[in-house]
Here is the input.
Amino acid sequence: MEMAEGSQFQGYLVGQVIASSVGVLLLVLEDFAGFYYYDFYNHIAVYGYIYLGSGVLPTILTLLGVGGLLVALQASIKSLQTRDASPALLKENAQKSIKGAGFTAALAFVSAVVFILSSYETDWWLGSGFYGAFVGGLLTVFFGRQMLDKMAG
Here is the structure.
């Protein structure tokens, strides 16, 4: 009995769905990063957070990251829902998910580097939003690459 083409990739597709879904949720619901410093002049502690809605640029970058992960999520779900998916459709959707999630992981990385460089005089940390976007994006790319490698081999 021969397995349907799509069923041998079901684990990878479910992994992509979980990684990209968790990434979207963390990016939207949690802080991307934060910082702290003590203002000696005014004698107060200052905390700041970067999150969806904290400013124009953070909001735009967060929405771009969410968009990339949603492209990956949509492509993974499309492949998962198709019972007898052709290898061409699976390959096309895997490539879409890799591009979308890769974009988000790269965007999160570059944004984190810019944040760290601009916060060098403060205590800073990367939040759950960063890890959701970066790790979720990388895991989605990893599962997509595994699928493409199995298709080629």
